[in-house]
Design a protein that fits this description.
The protein is an all-alpha fold. The chain has 6 helices and no strands.
Amino acid sequence: MTERKGHAGFLKLIIVYKTVMGGIGAVIAISYLELADKDLVRLVTRFANRLHLDMDSLILKSVVRRAGTLSIPTVTVIMAVILAFGVLNLVEAVGLHWRQRWAEWLTILATGAFIPFEAYTVIHGMSAVKAAILVLNCVIVYYLASHKELFKGIGGGGKGQG
């Protein structure tokens, strides 16, 4: 029982992570809807300034430059994808909170599907944040795949099962 509580603690961290990532994606995408007809370069610059990001950063300069080359339909598609991933993360978080077997598998598949892409980005542009996200997602997939007892359904204990 004590071991299960320890494992449940990490599950709560996964739920918080998925909720935060989902919320960020949803807020970014929904915010864009209000600003869709505005100057994208000015919006990205203002957003970066509000977050107190280093405007001299090569990455941020590149993002601002590229924002100026994107058409409104392209940005709309990008925001739709960001919104879809945000909603997916929120669905995963709710399902994990309720200890649903489908949420376990959805999270393993959705998170695991991005690991090769994340590994590629780490190899081709190493940064501490990219590496941390890659490691975290690998740990999440391993943890969920190896702790079936935390979930309701076939072969799992989960809440309310005894």
